[in-house]
What does this fold into?
Amino acid sequence: MNKEACAAQMMELPNGKSIYEEHLADYEEILLHVLASELISQPLIELLCLNKQCDLINQYCDMVELMWRDGTEDVVNVVDVTILERLSDEEMIWKRFGEYISDEFRRYINEELLPQNDMMGGVKPLHEKG
It folds into this structure.
């Protein structure tokens, strides 16, 4: 999935179409790091702060995993740098996020991303569910 296909998929998220259209009006092109921050990172953090189970959290987490699993190198970079780094800024949010992702994605984060990403040097690994 390239950035255009990813942006199209993100339009399925809440307020996705209007945020996408506003983004294009502002930047005249898809800046996937900016768009992902507006459409995924910020709303997901707000939901995780509420500490309530909801389908919307699953929808956002599924989108992040889809981007990671099926995305081009540029799309995966957005996941690693824009989404995961931001989610890891607050330990409580990071732990809650870990409850919603697959074991495969958690292994990737713990075994590949955290050891290689200097910006996430102090971030604790995510624990298994349950």
Notes: The chain has seven helices and no strands. Helices lie at 3-10, 16-27, 32-50, 55-70, 73-87, 91-98, 103-116.
